[in-house]
Amino acid sequence: MKEMSASVKAVELINQNVYRVSLEADDLTFKAGQYLMVVLPTGEKVPYSIGSAPHELPNLTLYILVSDPTSLASKVVDYIQSNTSIAIKAPGGDCHLQNGVLDTHPEHILLIAGGTGFAQIKSLYSELVEQNFTGKVSFYWGLRTAEDVFAQEWLEEAHKYTPFTLDVIVNEASDQWHGRRGWLYEAILADHPDLSQSVAFISGSVGMVYGTFDQLELKGLSTERCFSDVFAYAPHPNKPAL
């Protein structure tokens, strides 16, 4: 990873606790699915998936969840808002489309996101659209409540102009939500009961990634055909490390 400067173009609160950060980095190249690190003045390096696709460079988009005003994420947002340029390190991560998965000619690509894991999966989705990928692609995004949904404009455009499917699944019922609801894995398996010929990219919290994968594995998704940054830094919480 290389350290470089990125110009701050905008920091916008786009729902109750998610900020969309727009940056410009002239020296950056990356693969869809990779992440960058925001380098704080303290020396702390905080990773965030790049939510834009490579063809959008030099523009970059991050989605930062701030659930607690005392959190590290809050410190990151304050730092970005207070500066016209910031230090970043990039790119990082092996969960991307150039990892050989497309060479296997998968029958179906599942792109699965929980919460702000949306950023990484959006980048992968946008890149497949840009490449005019002709295979079957299904994007599933799971959120806890209707109030947690963001990026509505992008969702509407993605529905209109791409051949791939995109479903938003909200876990908790409310009068504000008339779309699909329940557990993310339930929606995926309702649509695709046999995953033996599928590959998957999963992005979200450790619990969400492993919980979803465990359910999909029962229906044929193999470990070798499932990719997540979580696998690189967190062992399976329910399985002993060998």
UniProtKB/TrEMBL annotation:
Ranges where the FAD-binding FR-type domain occurs: 1-98
Keywords: Luminescence, Oxidoreductase
InterPro entries: FAD-bd_FR_type, FNR_nucleotide-bd, MRET, OxRdtase_FAD/NAD-bd, Riboflavin_synthase-like_b-brl
Matches recorded under CDD domains: flavin_oxioreductase
GO molecular-function terms, A-Z: oxidoreductase activity
One Pfam family in the UniProt entry: NAD_binding_1
Descriptive protein name: NAD(P)H-flavin reductase
SUPFAM superfamilies named in the record: Ferredoxin reductase-like, C-terminal NADP-linked domain, Riboflavin synthase domain-like
Domain of life: Bacteria
Family recorded in the similarity comment: Belongs to the Fre/LuxG FAD/NAD(P) flavoprotein oxidoreductase family.
GO BP terms: bioluminescence
Entries under PANTHER family matching the protein: NAD(P)H-FLAVIN REDUCTASE, NADH OXIDOREDUCTASE HCR
